[in-house]
Amino acid sequence: MGEQVTVDKLYHKSWLKPLGLPTLLFVLYVPIGVCLLIIRAFILLQFFLLGYVLPPSKFRQKCLRVMSGVLGISISSEGELSLGAGKIYVANHITSYDHFVIHLTTNAIMPKKEKIASIIAKPFGLVEMDFESFSKEQIDSSKDTFILFPEGETTNGEVGVLAFSTVQVPVGVTIQPVAIKVSRPFLNTTAVSGKGALELLILLFSPNTHFVLKFLPPHTADEEGAWKQNMQSEIAQSLGLKATKLNASDKAEYLKRLYFRPPSLATMTREVQRKLAPQTISPELIIATLQRTGSVEATLESIRQSNITGGINPPPSTFSKSASQRMMTFQERKRIMIATARQKYIEKHNLTIPPL
């Protein structure tokens, strides 16, 4: 089943939904969205201040959740939150703020290796730590509950779940899977290029972004790592999605194919000329070689090899004063170069070969 899902099905290329009624409604909504964005930007500053000042507690959790509702985030949960301190929540990944929604619901934190400014980390439930180096004893003795996203990358949450391959959990640690579903009017919940700040602007602009958290029965990490595949399947099944064999690397390759634009022939020609300097090769010869090889490096190798073997005698780059020479086609100049190289080879080895 997983092989039937291609990577492009897991991502929206744009925030805008297909043309139709949603597009018309979005156009009408834009002025309201801009006003909401401006107002919520000021409220967001107060949210950061409150989240930074208040110590971790249920009171802080409720305050932040109320303010998040004003910012356009609504949350509903299903199932039993059966974990306490020293345990791990594992979830599918849709937006850059999934961890924040789980944090508002459970007070769990998300470990990050990267250095994070405390004024941003604390309100969003982030903490700087190398979680992969933690032992079972360290996790069990911790006062915190942790959030992990084993997919390693976001998806649109509409077709499939990426393979759980980016995290390691010590054997014996209790893990509870969380299935996340996100919905938003007018706009897609994610876009393949959307990250961080852009997603925040979309969130503040939208009338509402609704998160549904489904807490599934907990598991214990086993030595073989089978819990990853089991949890991936359980989360996918609870959301009506497919458990795929695709991973974060497949998304990276998809992004390369989607946004990579190969350099023009003129750009590659200049690059070859620059790397061959001070040697001068006619642009016509470079272009012909580029069209055959398709790359700068292969073209350089071909030209250098041809020069070594005497197969090419590149013409001077100066502009000819002779009108007849300027009118010669590339094929004619090519025949002349080949004939000249052939004659030099014959003379060098004292061969007696009748002319062609």
Automatic annotation (TrEMBL):
Membrane-spanning ranges: 26-54
Key words of the record: Membrane, Transmembrane, Transmembrane helix
One CC-aspect GO term: endoplasmic reticulum membrane
Main location: membrane
Domain of life: Eukaryota
SUPFAM superfamilies named in the record: Glycerol-3-phosphate (1)-acyltransferase
Compartments in which it is found: Membrane
One example of a Gene Ontology biological process annotation: ERAD pathway
Name of the protein: Ancient ubiquitous protein 1
